[in-house]
Amino acid sequence: MERKEYQNLEMTKEKLNVFWFRRDLRLEDNHGLCRALANGKKVRPIFIFDTTILSKLPSTYDRRVDYIHQALLLLQQKLNVFGTDLRVYIGNPIDIFKDMNRVVSIDSIFCNVDYEPDAVRRDELVRAWAVGEGIGFEAFKDQVIFEKSEVMKKDGTPYTVFTPYSRVWKSKLDPKDLLPFEIKDDWFEKLDLKEIPTLDEIGFQKTDILFEEPDIRAADINDYDKNRDFPGMDSTTRLGVALRFGTISIRQCVLLASEHNETWLNELIWREFFMQILFHFPKSLTQCFKPAYEGIVWRNDEREFEAWCNGETGYPLVDAGMRELNETGFMHNRVRMVVASFLTKHLLIDWRFGEAYFASKLLDYDASANVGNWQWAAGCGCDAAPYFRIFNPEEQLRKFDKDLIYVKRWNLDFESKSMCKIVEHAFARDRALRAYKVGLGK
């Protein structure tokens, strides 16, 4: 993708700080932005559509890019109220900062920490360039409550099992950890309004996604523990995408969860658990957390994988989930577990195939959670449960969608006689157990 420079390069001799929005697309309770505005120098807010990321996306019809674009438009409107503007660029971040530094006297670059391996490498490169130019680079904890090595075992090693991690996480939580960061709006650089590049200029198409500013209230989570497993009830918060792109504050969410629903709080802690797993064990992005599981011989049947992708396995709940994903970019969490177990255990297809497909489709795609949950389903991750946990998709249907509310919503031909089961459950379960035993040398 060709790099385009939008001439947002206003000349100035005054030393400026730059705040670089990434996974934090909001003004409210934004840690790094707060620190930048309290630094004593005017702050220029920017966002970069990173072409190293965009070029890897499989389609120009991507709801996530459209979501970001719409979120930026709202962010720009809010900044305009303060007499400033959002400068948006398309290209490689280092190239953008080099161009900017030729005409703007940058004192420091402020941002919030990103923990995924590719993001860590990107930030290390930008930091190294900045230091070489005499420019500061400061990154702050914002998308999590506890980061990196803040929740560790007594011997200084990271937790690899969720329950003890969550226990220590909760013991460390202090009310001050949830205090919002207030911004000083009078420290923004005064900038004239300039239009944000269109989706077409970025190289993408308009999609059917409609960005709505996220909000969460006690009423939304009071019964979360009772209803979250029933996809037909649509009783989840649907805040995954907002947390992924930072259009809502994690502190706001944890504060509400800690006061109203521990089950939802645990889900938020799972998010941080998987983040620290990927940070400490970056190889788990593409390799089994438990190395012994690399010995499993996967079938990887292409026709069966295609049938799974298209929601044509003959199992109503599996097919409904895949069709919901394909049509909307969302899938209910209980159904995600069922379809992932089906792919890895019933069809014996490598979890990396499913992880990549979800990565291409999920609106709320987050590498750490996606990889962590797929390895959980395949039994090769950091979870303590044994490999012989295999969901029965028919039993899951009877238990969580017995009235077929969800299935009828997304799988209209579930009663069609032409939709034969791709594999019988009992046969597939036995085959999976044999393959795992052989692969693990049991």
Automatic annotation (TrEMBL):
Alphabetic keyword roster: Chromophore, FAD, Flavoprotein, Lyase
Marked site positions, Electron transfer via tryptophanyl radical: W298, W351, W374
Gene Ontology molecular functions: deoxyribodipyrimidine photo-lyase activity; DNA binding; FAD binding
GO biological process: nucleobase-containing compound metabolic process; response to light stimulus; response to stress
Keyword Nucleotide-binding on entry: no
Gene3D superfamilies linked: 1.25.40.80, DNA Cyclobutane Dipyrimidine Photolyase, subunit A, domain 3, HUPs
Pfam families: DNA_photolyase, FAD_binding_7
Cofactor note: Binds 1 FAD per subunit.
Record has Cytoplasm as a keyword: no
Occurrences of domain Photolyase/cryptochrome alpha/beta (ranges): 15-145
Residues binding FAD, per UniProt: Y224, W264, E267, L268, I269, W270, R271, E272, F273, F274, D364, Y365, D366
Listed cofactors: FAD; (6R)-5,10-methylene-5,6,7,8-tetrahydrofolate
Tree of life domain: Bacteria
Record-linked PANTHER family: CRYPTOCHROME, CRYPTOCHROME CIRCADIAN CLOCK 5 ISOFORM X1
Assigned protein family: Belongs to the DNA photolyase family.
Name of the featured protein: Deoxyribodipyrimidine photo-lyase
The organism's taxonomic lineage, starting at the top: Bacteria, Pseudomonadati, Bacteroidota, Sphingobacteriia, Sphingobacteriales
